[in-house]
Amino acid sequence: MKIAISGKGGVGKTTIMALLANYLKESGRDILIIDADPSPHMAQTIGIKNVEKIVPIAEMRSMLAERSGKSEGSPFYNLNPEVDDLLERFMVEEDSLKLMVLGAIQTAKGGCACPENTVLRRLLTTLLLSPERIILLDMEAGVEHLGRGTIASVDLLLIVVIPSRSSIRTALKIKKLAEDSGIADIAFVANLIQDEDDEQFIKKHLDPRPVAFFPEAKSVRKSERQGEPVTRAGGDMAGAVRELAEYVGSRNVRGQRTEDRGRKDE
Length: 266
Ligand SMILES: Nc1ncnc2c1ncn2[C@@H]1O[C@H](COP(=O)(O)OP(=O)(O)OP(=O)(O)O)[C@@H](O)[C@H]1O
Ligand SMILES: [Mg+2]
Fold this sequence. Notes:
Elements (H helix, E strand, L loop, with lengths): L1 E6 L5 H14 L3 E6 L6 H5 L14 H7 L18 H5 E4 L2 E5 L13 H13 L5 E6 L17 E6 L3 H16 L5 E8 L2 H10 L7 E3 L2 H8 L12 H13 L7 H8 L1
Parallel strand pairs: 1-5, 1-6, 2-4, 2-5, 6-7, 7-8
Antiparallel strand pairs: 3-4
Helix pairs in contact: 1-9, 3-5
This protein binds adenosine-5'-triphosphate (ATP) and magnesium ion.
């Protein structure tokens, strides 16, 4: 199953993805996080050691060009490049949480014609082949990436909102674009909730209502300032993470609810 997260800048996408990853890992799932933000920040958030040594795959331009079969001056390149070994080579692991940092995918104006992108896209599609593994894609802020089709093949898109009009506006724009690009299953997740008013504001302006409400937590801010993994901040966020994980557990590939699938298979 492949799950992506999106939303306005700074609303808590990386934080929520890290907490979800950790919860699912502790319940025995095989988790791979892919950091697809051009300014990657997931490694710090989950507490990977030696973060400075991680090279985003997108920066390995000559390796990507070679894989794509692109040669100087040639207009041709390979549409099915070999990618099977790349995950093993570029994945880092800490405490059974696996992370691959993708970095910035270059886009040519007016549609992407970069052969390097073919390699990255193929890598993403190949990773889907393992059904037991849950792949969590942390995305950059805003709507731009939806136009690139990078996440068109996800099974579930989580859109993070905070109690502000602008965050809700961006969330609704993302939802529309995601629907247009064929994403089957889309859910909102609320963050930075301080009180009942915040929760009501979001419920009033968003349909459907978010599947989980994360409180604004001092422990999260503190752990970020101290450079500690958010997964250790825990406590205040536990209820919301469980809610979100339960929602994820009730979904399945390509937006079917697990129980519906069971019924259809009977
Ligand atoms: N529930 C929360 N309580 C307190 N602080 C939070 C909470 N969620 C996120 N934060 C803090 O808000 C800041 C932004 O969070 P985060 O990096 O997860 O957002 P983001 O949406 O991934 O940002 P970007 O758009 O830059 O990728 C961080 O300092 C994080 O520690
Ligand atoms: Mg982020």
